[in-house]
Specification:
404 residues, alpha+beta, binds nickel (II) ion
């Protein structure tokens, strides 16, 4: 379907080459919404802990696309079983799955009243360059791609490739985030997974000889969550950002004209409950950093202080939730307003949820052809699932509170 005259390639440290043969894919990569992803860091605040973790959502999105492209071409059951149309839309769903991300995703989601997944669907299905490109090929493309991302497409195999507990998204981000942060926990053998994927009983399954690789992948996920994604220092940075935007919003409520004039880059964010595709396009890491620079000069001491802390890594300290009351009192005694200088936060992780549902679970096909859910077959996975949730609850506060 719509092959390019000549294959385009991107060099990539994880994928080797990202290969593009399809004209629609190429045109979507060239759209302004996709190019914007170069200006959004994949890991938001993680570079505060792992200084080399500065790769973009652009590179991750290309990586997810490439894993799906390889799956539909190299896994025989998928290559033979899927139509050209289905191959095209699942590659596009992989490419576009993160297109609605705001800068510093997690902190922004506390301000925006709409999740990044919903912005992704809006950009694909409503007025945008991406939407114009898709519509110029076929009127069904955008709705079909959106339904794969939402997990409602009629052929659930496509949904499994893009979003399940063994999907191309997770495979790419574990490998990529591990590489760019310099941590080794996220590594696993992607080539082996691709070699052992099959389709049976209407779903994607893994041959039992590939199960140990899947165990590695689940362990990679478990370690990456605690070592990278939920690292308390990057959570501390997220807390600071949330507090900074909370203060900005409170100042806006007091004097909206003045704040909008001072920080035009945050006008849309302050004036609206949700953003349009065009407004989201204009929001990126660079405009936020420029805003924080300007805020350091603000007459409001709290806003200026929070912005200075964000820019110069004067992060909040953290400790276990047991000391919550004591720390809260100390914050108040030191003259800090706890609304902006005290926070508690909980992170919960499930490395793997057995039987979450037919699409999301990982299935193993045994030598005799019987299909079983992964935790029935793997001792490592069943023991990691016994403690079904791993929690970490902390409080965050300015370091001055305990150092003076
Ligand atoms: Ni992703």
């Amino acid at each position: 379907m719509y092959n390019l005259d000549e294959e385009k390639v991107f060099r990539d440290p994880i994928a080797g080459y990202v290969r593009v043969n399809n004209e629609i894919v190429w045109r979507c990569i060239e759209s302004r919404e996709f190019q914007r992803l170069k200006r959004i860091k994949q890991l938001g605040s993680t570079f505060m802990v792992y200084h080399t973790g500065e790769h973009s959502r652009f590179s991750h999105s290309l990586g997810v696309y490439e894993i799906i492209r390889r799956m539909v071409n190299e896994v025989k059951d998928l290559n033979n079983g899927l139509s050209d149309y289905d191959k095209t839309i699942v590659m596009l769903a992989g490419l576009l799955h993160d297109i609605g991300h705001a800068p510093f995703s997690h902190s922004f989601e506390s301000i925006l009243n709409k999740k990044h997944e919903d912005y992704t669907i809006s950009i694909i299905t409503e007025k945008s360059e991406v939407n114009d490109i898709l519509n110029s090929y076929s009127s069904s493309l955008s709705a079909d791609i959106a339904s794969i991302i939402k997990g409602t497409y009629h052929n659930s195999i496509l949904c499994q490739l893009v979003s399940s507990q063994l999907d191309a998204d997770r495979m790419d981000y574990l490998l990529r985030d591990s590489y760019f942060t310099g941590t080794k926990y996220g590594e696993f053998d992607l080539e082996r997974i691709l070699r052992t994927l099959r389709v049976a009983d209407g779903k994607v399954v893994i041959k039992s000889s590939g199960m140990h690789t899947i165990e590695d992948y689940i362990m990679a996920r478990y370690h990456m969550y605690w070592q990278v994604y939920y690292h308390p220092v990057s959570r501390s940075y997220d807390v600071l950002l949330e507090k900074l935007f909370l203060r900005l919003k409170d100042l806006y409520i007091e004097n909206s004209d003045k704040i909008v004039q001072q920080y035009p880059m945050f006008k849309d964010l302050l004036e609206n409950e949700t953003l349009t595709n065009d407004q989201m396009y204009h929001l990126d890491d660079s405009c936020c950093h420029y805003g924080f620079q300007l805020m350091c000069q603000n007459d409001d001491k709290i806003l200026a202080d929070l912005a200075y802390r964000v820019l110069n890594r004067r992060l909040f300290k953290y400790c276990s939730i047991d000391k919550k009351d004591q720390i809260y009192n100390m914050v108040v005694e030191h003259g800090f307003n706890p609304k902006y200088y005290f926070s508690q936060d909980i992170q919960i992780q499930n490395p793997y949820k057995p039987y979450s549902n037919e699409i999301s679970s990982i299935w193993v096909v045994k030598d005799g052809g019987e299909i079983v859910e992964l935790s029935n077959e793997s001792r490592i996975v069943s023991s990691i699932c016994q403690n079904n949730q791993y929690k970490d609850e902390k409080v965050f506060f300015p370091k001055e509170v305990i150092n003076d």
